[in-house]
Records
---
Amino acid sequence: MLLTGLWVAPALAGLLVWGMPSRGSARVLALALSGVILAYAAWLIVPYSAQPGILRLEEIGTAGAFGIRYHLAMDGIALCLCWLTALLIVLSLAASWKGDVPPGYWAAFLFLESALMAVFTFRDLFYFYIFWDLALIPMFFIIGLWGSSGRRKAALKFVLYTFLGSLSLLIGLLALVTLHYRATGMWTWDMAELARTPVAGPAALWIYAALAVGFAVKVPVFPLHNWLPEAHTEAPAAGSVLLAGSMLKMGVFGFLRVLVPVFPELSLAALPVLGGLGVVNVIYGALCAMAQKDFKRLIAFTSVSHLGFCLIGIFSLTAEGIAGGCLQMINHGFSTGGLFLLIGMMYERSHRRGVDDFGGLAATAPVLSVYFGVILLSSIGLPGLNGFVGEVMTLAGMARASMPLAVLGSLGAVLAAAYGLPAFQKVFWGPPGPDSVSQTIGDLDLRERAVLGVLVAGIVVLGVYPQPLLRLLTPAVEALALR
């Protein structure tokens, strides 16, 4: 029952926190329980570290009606995403410590954690889909109840886009399971069983497209990305951290866990299309980020660009590229999550987030400036920090599959510097304008330094020594590589 605990524990914790009589006690209990869940997720490496491939299988009972069964599994990819989710929950709650919010706010993050852990561990596609949809609910309330002035419109747009994507995913899954039954006479939702009985003919292409659209909306892949900038802009800082750091990874994980193993030949055929869309994401997201004057919206478009690198790596279909894409998912959680936290801390002090609202901030908040500089340099892929390793691996993998796509994708590194460094120079080193609020902003307190220090430590360690993480990913990555 070790894997069951990963999604049940946050759900029970959310119920306990929701029922607390005061805001202060809910806050303390939420942070304490999320810390316990993080420790539990980290401990899971101990009983599984000696086992390659799928680290753990967990079943309760036999297959029921229509082949649905309670079946969980964890490999290195799922374990890393569970670690990342648990860590970001703790840091997000700690960053929200001063917020005067009701118990429901803290409980929503724990319910979101439960759904995400279930998505990353369920091997049965029926439960996978149920929790895929359940993850929308707490994020809808996080944006709609505790976001900025345009929160209701952003929350509605978030739900409509992602629900339509989920509907496409459901249609594809139902068609896949039905065609498998017609071919074998056996109902099953098990990912491995479905992969062992390939679906051929025109129906396979339509199912592949339906599943791809469902996953692409969540990533999001251009042109299905329109919901993301607004959701990020209006969400509270902690909500943006979880949205970027974990929820968007559901789409990438879906490509890895379902689309490539079940449709290997179609994935090879779709390499120019999906790899090309990854390149479009990288370039389009970077160009849009360059045009933004709202700092939070700028960071939101960098998510579109960075997730493009994940797509490039995965649809290189090489072991090196897939490993780089998986590593980039983790890197993105550290770097973009850190930037959203920093923007939230600046907004908390000034109630402003425009690039032109600041200037000379390095003089009044030097520690904040250092943290921002390191995390931004990680985001744009500076050698020695984590973003560089992931980007190089994804592009090297794609170079083996398609050199033109790899060359075009490499433009993302240049464009990242073009949108990141000018904004950083303007805000922290440029002269304050007449409406600048920089002089009123105090530096980071001890709690904020500790939260950001954890992310910076991860950024440096993964940039200098990513080998332990790559070794953990290797068995799962090699099983997915098709080239």
---
Amino acid sequence: MRIERARGTRDFLPKEMRKRRIMEERMRDIAERWGYEEIRTPTFERSELFTLKSGEAILKEMYEFKDKGDRHLALRPELTAPVIRMYINELKMTPKPTKWYYFGNCFRYEEPQKARYREFWQFGTEIIGSDSPEAQAELIALAFNILKSLGVKAELHVGHVGLIRERLRVLHADEEQINTVMRLMDKEEEDRQAVIELMDERERDEIRYFLGALSDLIDSKDKDALQEARDRNIFASDSDALKELELLLELLKDYSVDYTLNLGIARGLDYYTGMVFEIYEAGGMLGAQNQICGGGSYRLAALFGGDDIPLTGFAFGFDRLAEIFSVDDKDLERRGVVVVPIRDKDADREVMKEAIKIASRLREFCPTHIDLMNRSLSAQLKYANTRHDSFAVLVGKNELKEANVTLRNLSTGRQYIMSVAACVARLKAYFNRN
């Protein structure tokens, strides 16, 4: 019986895996050069970790189950909550700020579509202990440097949910109303009327004006939109959130990061407190589903029993990046060496023994394989060509007598008889250069 893979999952063949490893290595390299250290959390957690963060409704989107001890568990649908849980449990006394990055698979039970799967991967970072403009700017600049290393054209939108919350308080909204408004604003444009109707009748004209002004205040490079907001009395001139956002934008210029100021960005989750940002693929390769990164400043630790510390983080949709990341085919070909034992009934055992010794030495510095199917010389070389190997090392009875091997260049067909030591040295020099 043929068994198909589960819906919403994928198989990755060697060429695709090499591409994804190249991406992953570049992202890790940059994160570590910026001073971030890698962590890893379990693939499944107690389900309340995610319901505390996102509400009971998220259970419908999760792979959740009871184990044999009747514990309610879930495959992780995202990585932020597990990272904060780990911090509280293991490392809350570490010096601040704590700077981490992570990479792992997540699971959501949702309808699969282009670049959206039930098993997917996230790459993200967290700064634990700081949500200052300096921390926010570093995190955004890090995200842009990662995208630059992948050759991805990107467009950054920056906002600040603190400004929206401040304005709603001026309009006499209570915290429950504010949280509901933020959730509605986080949805599509048609929910604007629902936001208006949520407010008391005497404030509806003001909230209608406020929401319209937010849509108008989208500016590409500088702080003109913020000045316009002050001129139109949309935000209080002495607003701490406004001062924080102005400093952040100045720091982004210092990092040479271009941005679009979008004060209409909201978050439907109550724990987001300050700066928020979204990054979109700007090359038109992902169509409408073109958001590749999201992040911001938030306070989540207290929800899980920790101190109320500031946090700043982001996460990349790794699979969407993989859709648009391109690399030269030659970089995806894993060129190596094949050690070819030329079998002879009189010396078969000795030939194979020497071939294994040579392969073991070559595997210290380059991909090397050896025949496992007792094939003929021509069949072995044909297999090596299908693998795009660069060299073949021929080991036979006659070579053994002279303590030599034959090194064949599979691209040119030229071959040379030399000692094992000389052969190893030549191949090592070649692969170190390439």
